[in-house]
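Running log. JK asked me to keep both predictions on one page so they can be read side by side. First protein, sequence followed by its tokens:
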Amino acid sequence: MYLQHTIGKKVKEARLNNTLTQQELAERCSLTKSHISKIENGQAAPAVATLSKIAQELDTPLSWFLESNLHNKLSIVKSKDKKLKIGNKDIGYTYEALANRPRFSKVEPVIVTVLPEAEYVTPFTHSEDEFIYILNGSINLYYDGELHYLEQGDSAYFEGNTPHIFISADKNKEAKVLTFFIQNTPL
């Protein structure tokens, strides 16, 4: 719940810094004003696809919304202190930020736990490239309309602006995926 409120405050801060109303942000993200309001007030936990769209429209790295403490030069997150989780069985994932990085970091490391009960949902896009490494379990990665089966030890690197989604390949076991979102830098 704490992270939900933190994310909401950050969405509001970034929205106001971009001089957008809730309605304008909602329209840009194909959401309702009510949903944006619930996110900002900590009453709703956004799916990563939703948060990614919001981040893209606000020109803010996704990682900035997921972190709770900012450190400028060094970020250490002890295993026993990890409390940064967002998501639930309704969206099919939980996310755990691995580094409390400054707002404009180019790389965002996250552990995604893919819940076995997750249903196939519409693939989504985001502005960051994505690298995934399967820590345990197995997933079905749907990328640009094609199915790719990945299991422990497998990895993939892909452009986030192509429709994609991954779900657990085993309906009885969750999968853990080390994910890096990488900001594209124009040459």
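And the second, directly underneath as requested:
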Amino acid sequence: MTTAAPAGTRDAAPAPARPASPYRLSFGRVVRSEWIKLLTLRSTWWSLAVTVALSLAISLMMASAARDFGGGLSPVMTIVMPMQFTMLVAGILGAIAVTGEYSTGMIRSTFTAEPHRGAVLAAKAIVVGVVMALATALTYLVAILLTAPILGSAGIDWSDPAQSWTPLAAGVFAMAMFALIGVGFGFLIRNGAGAIAATVGVLFVLPIVTNMFVFAGESWQWIVDLGQYLPMAAAQMATTPAGDDVLRGILTLAAWPAALLLGAWAALRTRDA
């Protein structure tokens, strides 16, 4: 006679193997996720709207007053000079695109879905930079169309790239870099107010502080010289028509977000979300 084994000691039937999912989380999907997140935020559209409206308004006013500049202002500068004001909106947009996730706790879900935090950082930087570059290029196009009738024969000389295409391309690049500076501070500080304050400090406050030392004498000239490597000064170099320091300005503009994003990547590897 055989004795039945207790129910608790019987071998359980093997569970059927679940079919492998055909979906994989690729970097392209991470970029698409960041694209959706950024463009579904009202703050993004408000920031872009303010940037476009401010840029167009200043361009129209400068074009209307161009005859009062005594011929010393290149026509293309009426398009790119509003960047001195819109750079703040670009930097703030980059900062809140990151800190908004930290304030709501969504960043934990993001890092759970994609444990490779460097991929999240790269995807967010790409999306923010591309959105700002596209918005700036579209703004420049509208500004050119609106100011052309005002400037008339004194308009942009498209046959000379140094007086037209180069400053415009540098302006688009500069606005994207300003936004990425905000992204870098956002990941480093992780607090909305702190990241915005740091971004505004680098883009707007520090240039004012360094310019104060112009009157301080030769012993303080090194501070003035350092100010030439701030993002705003670099943007002015890069967008100056037929300027001699365009390449230096471009490289300086690229170095700021590169350094901040590398620091943010190192911080993400060692800190909790």
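Observation for JK regarding the second prediction: Residues 26-270 form one domain.
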